[in-house]
């Protein structure tokens, strides 16, 4: 499945919620409608998400196919999360996430 990330954003939530909230707009090759994945994490490690059509409803089997990829393909989900982290203010990224991202970047060189 060819997934294109159109736009992403991630922001730090202050007290009382505390955590991170974001959204990523996705297009999937061959699918009629784009999607939005909303994200939430307390510490930036374990993510809750909600997948829905961005503009108009599309085919149920298409969104279910994307849901399966997100659930089963850790690399694809990590790529989506990384796109969101890329938009977060550097000072808001927790040190443990900065280290993980640096290590992942150096292993790709």
TrEMBL record:
It comes from the Bacteria. This is Uncharacterized protein.
